[in-house]
Amino acid sequence: MKISDMSWGQVEAYLQDDDLCVLPLGSTEQHAGLSLSVDSILAEKVAVDAAEPLGVPVFPVLPYGLTPYFAAYPGTISLRVESYVAVIRDILDGLYRQGFRRIVMVNGHGGNAPAGAFAIEWMADHPGTSVKFHNWWSAPRTMARVQETDPVASHASWMENFPWTRLVEANDRTQKPMIDLQRMRAMDPERVRAYLGDGNFGGVPQRPDDEMHAIWEIGVEETRAVIEGPWE
Predict the structure, then answer these.
(1) How far apart are CA 62 and CA 43, in angstroms?
(2) What are the start-end ranges of the E strands in the chain?
(3) Please, what are the domains in the chain?
(4) Taking the model in full, what pTM does it have?
(5) What stretches pass through the bilayer (predicted)?
(6) Tens-place pLDDT, residues 98-122
(7) Which of 9, 54, 104, 146 is most buried by its number of CB atoms within 10 A?
(8) In a 10 Å sphere around its CB, with 0-12 CB exposed, 13-18 middle and 19+ buried, how is residue 18 labelled?
């Protein structure tokens, strides 16, 4: 259930019996012809779909992350590492003060890895808490289904093209060769844009929706398993 659909009184009542919640993490960055909010849309939706049957509250997605390499693409907004970690700290502190002791971060953006590293430090300063950092798209079963469907898949390609992230149908479904990620990481934003072009890292832009729904179902199942536990 979404926190945005709850009142403070309902949250207070929930905390009388449970201390578990979910925090989705996203970003606002280029995704070729897809929405700039792909990572936020997917992180929040997979969290809500997974948590709904469990009755676990899901907080609004954090829509900004770490994506400096895409800064030359209009619409991309990146936080500095220190700013991002400070925001994560404030959110975790706020959840702790409210009474939440078990927190699942459902992450939709690879660049947000520092949040997971910080969570380990934060737990050391808050005995009795447990934080899980879950990259939903790269979880074992989900990624295995992606590879089984089409091994040429990456950022802004078909593997992120769901009906809820798609802006228009892709008429040209030519497969783009995979980029050299190590080479890209050594470029400044302007050179990254010149190298990537539309922004797709590699793969066809779109695959059939039945294949995407099959991947999504596995992603939701894996995320739900993380939420359910076991917990320490």
Answers:
(1) 9
(2) 20-25, 102-107, 130-135
(3) 3-227 (3.40.50.10310)
(4) 0.96
(5) none
(6) 999 999 999 999 999 999 999 999 9
(7) 104
(8) middle
